[in-house]
Amino acid sequence: MSETQELTLSDVAEHNSKKDLYIVVHDKVYDATAFVDEHPGGEEVLLDVGGQDATEAFEDVGHSDEARQILDGMEKGKLKRMPGDPSPPDSTSASTGTQSTTTTSPSSSDSSMSIAFYALVLLGGALAFGAYKYLQAKSAGESSK
């Protein structure tokens, strides 16, 4: 792209249909029209964010590097924020022009909670099995008397 086009949010909002679809991710405008039918998550996902800032939705999914390369190929221009426009979801990455990366791996506290929950389920199962065997043996002992 030899010249970077600047579009406002109101310009982008006009492109919100399946046949003409723009999205904004990290203050860059992308023409997603040709990709609507190919999107692995389905066309509804793109149509829901069409004509608006899709940064948060894009990052929440945790797109792959390949998806980011595809996105780069659809770049139409840069977003020109006007007074009164909503601020970007992550103002630090938008102002520096860098893309923030999200990690999809669980944090250490989430991981330890998962292990604790798993251990609790195993312990509960072992106690339930022990109680079952105890009651079964007690029942067999009473019937033999």
Through-space gap between termini: 92 Å
The coarse silhouette is rod-shaped
The proportion of residues in beta strands is 5-15%
Order of helices and strands: EHEEEHHHEHH
Which regions have little confidence, pLDDT < 50, spanning 5+ residues?
A: 91-105
Fraction in helix: 40-55%
Number of strands: 5
**Total helix count?**
6
What topology, given as strand order, has the largest sheet? 1-5-4-3-2
pLDDT averaged over residues: 82
> Which radius of gyration do the C-alpha atoms yield?
26 Å
- The structural class is alpha+beta
Largest sheet properties: 5 strands, mixed
Care to give the gist of this entry?
This protein has 145 residues and is α+β, with helices and mostly antiparallel strands.
